[in-house]
Amino acid sequence: MTDKITTVLVLCTGNSARSVLAEVLINALGEGRWRAFSAGSHPAGAVNPLTLAVLAEKGHSVEGLRSKSWDEFADPDAPRIDLIITVCDNAAGEMCPIWPGRPSKIHVGFPDPAAATGTDSERLAIFREVYGQIEAKIRRLIALGPERAGEV
């Protein structure tokens, strides 16, 4: 058993929904053995209110969550990242910064709930569905461990 903490950066284009959901879930389910951050290549500037609603509904703290640029994590003074996870196809295909330490990278795509249309309750249902999809993948990632992250 090791005391090493696996540090993860979850990337998406806007950093307003999927990447934030994954960040919160990794931090909650990782039980101190995993530490996650999220960022976007073109951050929206704010976390989607429905992301915050679903997280609060599921009992997660939303304090301090913000939409931020991936540039914050390419700085030499940024936390050392062990694993980068892209959660949207656009971010997976973009030219990423050079990350200090050359972390492992995987892509686990999810539908974008921020693009959902319909009534507020219909859109909220889509956010809940995507939350469930992300939760299942994060549980599998944590069960497998960082060495087998590519199998998620």
TrEMBL record:
Residues of the signal peptide: none
The entry's keywords: Arsenical resistance, Oxidoreductase
GO terms assigned for molecular function: arsenate reductase (glutaredoxin) activity
Chain ranges of the Phosphotyrosine protein phosphatase I domain: 6-144
EC number: 1.20.4.1
SUPFAM superfamilies: Phosphotyrosine protein phosphatases I (SSF52788)
GO biological process, one term: response to arsenic-containing substance
InterPro entries listed in its UniProt record: Ptyr_pPase, Ptyr_pPase_sf
Protein name stated in the entry: Putative arsenate reductase arsC-like protein
Organism listed in the record: Magnetospirillum molischianum DSM 120
